Amino acid sequence: MFCRIIKKYYPSVKIVIVDLPQSIPYSIISLLYANPSNTYLLPHEITSGLDISTYDFVFLLPDQAKLIPEHAVDFAINTMSFQEMSNSDIAKYFELLRKILKDDNLFYCLNAVEKPMIINKKEHAIRFFEYPWKERDEDISYSLSPIEHHRTTKPFYERITRLAVNN
Question: In what order do the strands lie in the sheet with 138-144?
């Protein structure tokens, strides 16, 4: 949904979507319906040395995210998927974000304040405030989110941050 809105108001923007193989088809169908004249690059079409900036939409599987050039992304979004990951996987995504984001970037993150997860048969709490934020990250906005309020009693944080990047 975010991609459709962004493309509507910023038609020249290039969008890279990193998602699970079982989720990508739904995004592709939705975006093709809304933007039939745009160019698309699908995960099975990726080759080394390919310039992904020549496509309107690029779809990558998590193991292909390393193909995104360093410091090439202005704006990143994560909605309700970090809460489904282990802390070590979240840390890997933050490492990726700090590598691919430009110095002047924005990162929008919407996830549960806390969610219990079973990892290796043990329950662990995945907590938003324990994500690998850094002191050098600059918050633009950080608050409880009204977005999922009508669907659940579980609270969500919504944070817009300029992430400190790796140079």
Answer: 73-79, 101-112, 156-162, 138-144
Query: Rounded to two decimals, what is the model's pTM?
Result: 0.90
Query: Residue 159 phi/psi, 5° resolution?
Result: -135, 130
DSSP state of 68: S
Contacts of residue 71, Cβ cutoff 8 Å, sequence gap at least 6: 99, 100, 101, 102, 103, 165
pLDDT classification of 120: cutoffs 50, 70, 90: confident
Q: Report whether 110 contacts 78 (CB < 8 A).
A: yes
Residues making up the chain, counted from first to last: 167
Give the CA distances from residue 42 to residues 56, 115, 116, 140, in Å, rounded to whole numbers and listed in that order: 11, 32, 33, 33
Environment class of residue 29 by beta-carbon count within 10 Å: exposed (0-12), middle (13-18) or buried (19+)?
A: exposed
Helical spans, DSSP H, in 35-126: 87-100
Longest dimension (CA), the chain: 48
